[in-house]
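## retry 2 of 3
previous attempt timed out at serialization; input unchanged, resubmitting
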Amino acid sequence: MEARYALLLNAFNSFLPSERIITDPSLCLALGTDASFYRLLPKMVLRLSTTEEVIKAVKLCSEHGIHCTFRAAGTSLSGQAISDSVLITLTDDWRGYEIAEQGKSITLQPGVIGADANKYLAPYGRKIGPDPASINSCKIGGIAANNASGMCCGTAQNSYRTLAGISLVLADGTYLDTRDELSKLKFTQQQPHLLAGLRQLHEEVTSNPTLSERIRHKYRLKNTTGYSLNALLDFADPFDILAHLMIGSEGTLGFINDISYHTVPDYSYKASCLLVYADIETTCLAVTELASTPVAAVELMDGRALRSIANLAGMPDFIKALDLEAAALLIEVQAETRDELKDKCAQAMAAIERFTLLNQVPFTQDKTVCDNLWAMRKGMFPAVGAVRETGTTVVIEDVAFHVEHLAAAVRKLTELLVRFGYDEAIIFGHALAGNLHFVFTQGFDSE
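## retry succeeded, writing output
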């Protein structure tokens, strides 16, 4: 072990029990692996149980000039939760929550699983806004740090938009709770230059029409690339700016100690349908029409994506007979009453009645059918992995387009994938937001 890491290890040993400091290379390899295909080997893995331990650990890393990386569940596919230095993980002591305002807000520690947060809120008919596909496994710390969204939340109900307050630890160990006036006063005394810098950035951005419009344009699309620079436009208070910059910062600005969300309604009545069209152009035209209707989610799947899950249990038989030119929309509608649900379903279908369907699973409230349809959508990424050639890796990427350009974008993307030999590649995604995933397999053993 390098001398500087040995010194840091000695410092950690002064306040952490040895069983919560892992340096064994085999264990570091195992604990350092996340859901992505990237691989780094941490020098050590810490398991921290309190805010005080986090403050001490990050401060020591900063003082020794050594990077640290935070890990919640490690379900991200993009490698944010791996490290070649110090990997900080959490014990089970970080699963606390507090519900307020009859379920209209909830405070969650970073170790709470997303689906568990919704279980706690279910008696109130509420849920958290973010709904990533991995919600049954991913944790609040990662959901907030990545500004993870999903199939229903879009941009209106993500962590950035539903944030009510946050407590955090900066890299130098400074603690802040944006909901506590005394904490904010202390932070003002400790970090005057940081707050002044945020005010200055806000003034620079808002006084520059070209830059302001560029930022607005960037965030009209579903976008989690880089920092949430829209915070410099959306807020003037430096505490609000800092809180919202933490969302989507992937742990690079600090540690999310806990977060308070404004919750959203979890409607009792829901219906789903699967609509299949002959080509991607027709499918995307239908999306454009659906954008003005009261649908909660519209997921697009191209022909190869449908082919990848055709043999899964519970799938409609007609999917097996579809050719690769076909594409489908999976739609969900939500409402407070049965009559409202019926009306919303009718509005959606009326908006797209001029488009000829190849086949469909009509709107249904049958829980088994609906669960199977959404399991189909969630199963597309692993379906590609299941049939990949030995020695290849599954790669997933995100792209975003304005909805009116969606058809052309999918067609061009498909042409590129075919041209370069990625015949197994699939395209699917959140159609209303113009946000698509494309998945392909790649070997990295040759040029």
